[in-house]
Amino acid sequence: MKKSEIILMFIQLPLDFILLLLAGWSAYWLRFSDWAVAWRPVLFNLTFDNFTSMLVVVAVVWILIFALSGLYSTDPNRKLLPDLARVLLGCSAGLSAVAVYVLFRQTPFDSRFLVVFGWGFAVSYVCFGRLVMRGFKALLYRSNIGLRCVVLIGENNSTESIVSVLTTRRELGYDVLGVYEHLDEPTSRILAELDLDEIIFLNPRAHEDEALRAIDLCNERHIVFKYSADLFATYSSHMRVQPLAGVPIVELKRTALDGWGRVLKRVTDIVVSAVLIIILAPVMLAVAFIIWCETGRPIIYKNERVGIRGQNFFTFKFRSMYQKDSTGSQFGADGEKAEAREQELIKKQNSKAGPIYKIANDPRVTPFGRWLRQWSLDELPQFFNVLSGSMSLVGPRPHQPREVGQYHAEHKRVLIIKPGISGLAQISGRSDLSFTDEIRLDVFYIEHWSLFLDLVIFFKTPFILFKKRRVL
C-alpha cells in the first residue's frame, strides 16, 4: 500500500472513536434536554464524568467490533454501501453487547434512552464520517495526490474497459501511465524508468515466462503485481481478488506485512527500540568510552546498506576496525584506499560463496573490536536505525550495494520490507549460513510474517545474538 493510503486508513480508527464518543454525549445531552425531561423525568443519578468513563469503555468495545466486521480492511477499493452496511451491523452488535451488560448488571437507573439514542447517533455519525473520508480521499485523488501509478500489459477488450474506468473515475485513485501489448526487454527497460506502484497483467496469449518476468520486475521494484483471475496459477498464498471494470483481478501479495500489519510493526519498532536504547544506554556509553581510549574517533561507523525498495541508507555500528582500514564515504580518501585493500583481502581470504563476503582472520579488526564482534555488541547502535525508520527490529539482513548488485531477480524479493537487526536467518545460523539458505529463510519470513513470528524471533535473539561466536 502507498504511504498515503496507510495514513488515511490509520486516521479512520481514531475518527470513528471520536464519533462514537460524540454519539454518546449527544444521547446524554438529549436525555437531559427540556423536552426529554418533560416527556419522562430522569430517574437515575449519573454525572457526565461517570457517563464519559463508561462511554470510553463502550467505544473501545465498539471499535473492536468494527474491526471484526471488516471496517478497517486494507483494501483501498472497498465499496461504500457494503461499508455502511458493516457500520449498521457493527453498531447493532455493539448495542446488543451493551444490552446484555445492562441486563446482567441490573443497573438501578433507566438507561434505555441513552442506549437506544446512542445507537442511533452512532450509526448516523459513523456513516457520516465514512462519507466525509470518502469525499476527502476522492478530492485528493482528483487533485492528483496519492494516486497509484499503474501500467497495463496486454491489449484486449478488458484492457480498454479498465483503462476507460480508471481514467474517467479518478476517485478510484489510479493514474494510467501506459498500456503495452507485451512485456519484452524493450518494455522492461521503459518500465524500469517509470515511478510505478502497480502492474496489471491482462495478456491472455502470454507465455508464463512473460508473467514471471513481470513478477521479477515487481519484486525488484517493490511494485504491486495484479493479473486477470483466469490467466495463471497462483504464485503466492497471499492474494486478494477484486473486480475492476467487471474483470476479476487477482493481487499477488508477497507478504501479509501490509496495511495494519505494517502499522503494528512500525509502532512496535518505535516503542521497543526506544525502551532498549534507554536500558542499554550505560552499556553503549561504556563501549564508546573504551573505543575512544583504544583507537580514538570516530566511535560510530556508518556502513552503507540497501534497504526497502532498494533505497540506500547508513547502518550505525560501533567501529571495530582501525581508522585506516575503515571503508566508506565517512573516511574520505582513506576510505577509498581501505576499500581497495578490502577487495584484495576478499580475493585471498573470503570464506563465503555468492554475492556476500566474509573475510577470514581479518587483520583490520582491533582487539576490542574483535571482542565486540564476538558478542555482537557492535550492532547495538542499530536500534537508532530502527527508531528512525530505516530498519526494523526483525527482518532480512541488510547487505551492501555491491553485494546487492550481484543479486539475481529472485533474490531481490528480500527488498520488499525493511531489513532487521535480527531475523529468521540471523537466529538460524547467524553468519555461518550460505547465501542461498539466508535468502530462503528471509523469503519464508516475508511470506509467512505474523506478529507472533516476530515475537518468537525477538525473544530468541538474546540467546543467539549475544552468544559468544568465533570471529574469523
Describe this structure in words.
The chain is of the alpha/beta class and 472 residues long. It has helices at residues 3-31, 34-39, 48-68, 80-105, 112-142, 157-168, 185-192, 208-221, 260-295, 332-349, 367-374, 382-388, 401-404, 424-427, 435-447, 451-465, and strands at 148-153, 174-180, 198-201, 224-228, 238-244, 247-253, 300-306, 312-318, 392-394, 420-422. The strands form 3 sheets. The chain has a 6-stranded mixed β-sheet with strand order 2-1-3-4-6-5. It has a two-stranded antiparallel sheet with strand order 7-8. The protein has a two-stranded parallel ribbon with strand order 9-10. Strand 3 (198-201), helix 8 (208-221) and strand 4 form a beta-alpha-beta unit. The longest helix is centred in the middle third of the chain and has 36 residues, at 260-295. The protein is flat, with a radius of gyration of 28 Å.
Give a quick rundown of the structure:
The chain has helices at residues 3-31, 34-39, 48-68, 80-105, 112-142, 157-168, 185-192, 208-221, 260-295, 332-349, 367-374, 382-388, 401-404, 424-427, 435-447, 451-465, and strands at residues 148-153, 174-180, 198-201, 224-228, 238-244, 247-253, 300-306, 312-318, 392-394, 420-422. With 472 residues, the chain is α/β, with parallel strands linked by helices. Residues 265-466 form the Bacterial sugar transferase domain.
Structural class: alpha/beta
Strand order of the largest sheet: 2-1-3-4-6-5
Task: Measure the end-to-end span.
Answer: 42 Å
Instruction: Tell me the total number of β-strands.
Output: 10
Q: Please give the largest β-sheet.
A: 6 strands, mixed
H-E order? HHHHHEHEHEHEEEHEEHHHEHEHHH
> What is the overall number of helices?
16
Number of domains: 3
Low-confidence stretches: 233-237
Mean pLDDT: 82
> How big is the Rg?
28 Å
- What overall geometry do the principal axes of the alpha carbons give? flat
